[in-house]
């Protein structure tokens, strides 16, 4: 699935940043920002650098950048939720690529308590899937199965809306 330039030019900066980071946007994001958007502009810079590190398989460096991004003081708004959720998803991914299974589980569970995950969403379903994979890697097949089944149910629930 690719997102068009028009979507990013007219859509939310947060969604554009998240989709750009996850590789769904193939064109530069152009946004007119005001002073309230400075945290989002900083987030974009950190996202881009972390993305470069992930592509170069420098997962530890990407992890540090993603932790820096997660520590930014985003306003509590719909605009910030995709960035917060996406940051934690990619952070857990970077930890798993480093085979830091216990840390991935800890950060993933902490992320599930954040507002972007409070309702059934694609973010929550994806985090449940990642936690299931991490539990599987630690040999806990029972929990892996539970989280993966929960993920499937959540994806179906989101799709049926």
Describe this structure in words.
The chain is built from eight helices and no strands. The protein has 161 residues and is mainly α.
Helix content: 55-70%
CATH superfamily: Tetratricopeptide repeat domain
Cα-atom radius of gyration: 16 Å
Instruction: Give me the CATH architecture, please.
Output: Alpha Horseshoe
Overall geometry: globular
Poorly predicted runs of 5 or more residues: 1-15, 24-32
Q: What is the average per-residue confidence, as pLDDT, rounded to a whole number?
A: 81
Distance between the termini: 19 Å
CATH class: Mainly Alpha
Instruction: Give the total of beta strands.
Output: 0
Major sheet description:
none
Strand fraction equals under 5%
As for the CATH topology, it is Serine Threonine Protein Phosphatase 5, Tetratricopeptide repeat
The DSSP helix count reads 8
> What is the helix/strand order?
HHHHHHHH
Compact description:
With 161 residues, this protein is mainly α. The chain is built from eight helices and no strands.
Keywords:
161 residues, mainly alpha, Serine Threonine Protein Phosphatase 5, Tetratricopeptide repeat, 8 helices, 68% helix, disordered N terminus
Outline the secondary-structure elements.
Blueprint (H helix, E strand, L loop, with lengths): L4 H6 L2 H9 L16 H18 L3 H12 L10 H17 L3 H12 L9 H16 L3 H19 L2
Helix pairs in contact: 2-3, 2-5, 3-4, 4-5, 5-6, 5-7, 6-7, 7-8
């Amino acid at each position: 699935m690719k997102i068009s330039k028009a979507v990013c030019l007219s859509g939310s900066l947060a969604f554009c940043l998240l989709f750009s980071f996850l590789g769904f946007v193939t064109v530069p994001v152009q946004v007119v920002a005001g002073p309230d958007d400075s945290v989002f502009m900083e987030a974009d810079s950190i996202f881009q650098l972390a993305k470069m590190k992930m592509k170069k398989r420098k997962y530890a460096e990407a992890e540090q950048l993603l932790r820096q991004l997660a520590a930014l003081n985003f306003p509590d708004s719909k605009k910030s939720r995709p960035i917060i959720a996406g940051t934690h998803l990619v952070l857990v991914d970077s930890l798993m690529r480093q085979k830091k299974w216990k840390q991935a589980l800890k950060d993933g569970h902490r992320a599930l308590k954040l507002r972007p995950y409070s309702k059934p969403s694609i973010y929550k379903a994806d985090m449940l899937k990642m936690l299931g994979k991490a539990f599987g890697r630690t040999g806990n097949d029972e929990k892996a199965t539970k989280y993966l089944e929960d993920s499937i149910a959540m994806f179906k629930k989101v799709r049926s809306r």
